[in-house]
């Protein structure tokens, strides 16, 4: 809760006028307890889990021809019942695992020093912290994910997430309850190491879940803005991991590609891409030769 009775008092304490964003934040949060501000995460997660995967899901079910050229596993078409069941399972985990975890983690948020007052962080500060959060989460997630692909971890826990060999956006948080809890550790590690403002924390939660949904969407769009992020894996990168399934020892990283490259766990993926490139080259050459032969045959007939 902001410790100022009025905006004028806040300006006097800061020694300057409030920015438009700070004035808006003051009006919204001045009388809201910190724990309620933190619990906004529950609402944000619900909205992201529900709305972010919805456009592609509706297009795939109602107008698949509009996005078929970009589908990574075009031979697999899930029925509406699979989408609905996946969403129900995710919401069940949300109610019984994610929600209670959020409700019980406020003391940790307070302990590490995530603040809610004024001044608000600058855009540069927020971006820098978000980059740190993504890098820390990605590194921690890589090792946890890799361990979960051991025999015991896969059979007892991670197998649930791999029920979708051709993932969909709704399946990004679809996992065993223990995996949901375990993967919460690297997600919170960044804010714990480099604590910032609650708004930065909100944005981190939203962006991380949106990124997970994007990498599980099952489509690779060449015009996606994430294509311009250095070392970003994306949907095509993670889709290969699901395509191979339980035996996969490749593409463990959640966001970037540097860990897999550094530790040699992208070899299967690189080999797969090289083989597909050769096949495409052969098909192109075959089509060109076929067209030439057909033209020559037509000339001979004339």
Quick check: average pLDDT? 92
Percentage of residues in helical conformation:
55-70%
Q: Give the amount of beta strand, in percent.
A: under 5%
| Tally of helical segments | 15
- Summarize the main sheet: none
How would you classify the helix and strand content by structural class? mainly alpha
For the record, the count of structural domains works out to 2
Count all strands and give the number: 0
Order of helices and strands: HHHHHHHHHHHHHHH
Please tell me how large the radius of gyration is.
Answer: 24 Å
Return residue spans where pLDDT drops below 50 for at least 5 consecutive residues: 294-302
Mass-distribution shape:
elongated
Task: Explain briefly what this protein structure is.
The chain is mostly helical and 302 residues long.
Report on this structure.
It is a single chain. The chain is elongated. It has helices at residues 7-14, 20-29, 34-38, 40-51, 54-62, 80-104, 106-112, 123-148, 151-156, 177-182, 184-193, 198-215, 234-244, 258-262, 267-301. The chain has 302 residues and is mostly helical. The chain folds into two domains: 1-32, no CATH class; 34-265, no CATH class. Helix 4 runs antiparallel to helix 6, helix 4 (40-51) runs parallel beside helix 12 and helix 8 packs antiparallel against helix 11 (184-193). It starts with 6 loop residues before the first helix and ends with a helix. Pfam families: FA_hydroxylase. Its main location: endoplasmic reticulum. It is found in: Endoplasmic reticulum membrane. Belongs to the sterol desaturase family. It is a multi-pass membrane protein.
